[in-house]
Amino acid sequence: xxxxxxxxxxxxxxxxxxxxxxxxxxxxxxxxxxxxxxxxxxxxxxxxxxxxxxxxxxxxxxxxxxxxxxxxxxxxxxxxxxxxxxxxxxxxxxxxxxxxxxxxxxxxxxxxxxxxxxxxxxxxxxxxxxxxxxxxxxxxxxxxxxxxxxxxxxxxxxxxxxxxxxxxxxxxxxxxxxxxxxxxxxxxxxxxxxxxx
Length: 197
Fold this sequence. Notes:
single chain, 197 residues, Immunoglobulin-like, 2 domains, 4-stranded mixed beta sheet, 4-stranded antiparallel beta sheet, 8 strands, elongated
C-alpha cells in the first residue's frame, strides 16, 4: 500500500509538472509582452514630455501680437509648470498670460462708433478686462459706445481667467451701467441717471 500511495503522489507531481510546463509555455510570451509594453512606455514617456515642453516653449516665445489664443498660452504655461523642477514666479506667470487689450478699440469707444454710452464698473476688484460679444473691448472703470440690443459680456482677470459671463440687452437710451461684483460673482445692470440737470 505504501508503494501505491507513492505511485499516486508521483502521478500527481508528474501531471502537475506537465500542466505547469504547458501553462508556462503559454504565459511566458504574455508576461514578456506585458513587461515589454511597460518598459517601452516608461522609456517613451520622457520623450513625449520633452516634445510637449518644446511645443510649450515655442508657444510662449511667440509674441503677444501673434494672436496666439490666451487659452493656448495658459496650456503652455501649465506644461512648463508641471515639467519644471523650479517654480515659476507669479510675476512672470502674470506677464506671460496677460491679455493684450486692443488699444485702438479701447481708444475709439470700443469700436462700435455711436450708440449707447456704456459705463463698465467692477468692485472690489478693479481693472478687469471686458469682452463684448467675444471681443476684448475695455477695462473696467471705463466708458465705451455700444449699439443697443442683446450682447454677451464677459469679465476677465488680466491672466484671461473668466470671472463671469452674462447676456444683457442694452436698451435704447443715452447711457447704461453694467457693474461686476467680484465678491458675489454677479453682473448687474442698471439705467444711468444723471444728477445734475
